[in-house]
Protein: Aldehyde dehydrogenase
Amino acid sequence: MFAEDALQKWWAARSDEQRQQLKRAAESARPDADTAKLLGDTSCPVGLIGSKWETETEWGWTLSPDLRAFISEQ
Structure:
């Protein structure tokens, strides 16, 4: 898996509440903005994939397959 050692270290520093939020996001088709902020604020070594149509005001986020698999396995 891509960046597994860095992900393990990052995951170990997460609180139980953060881990639950991340697990819910891994089960979801599209993580919410709070999860995107959590990943950015905690310097997750594997970033989100974002997309936005020019006419939309909000970004749509998805977890990379590697990040989704890592979180699901924890």
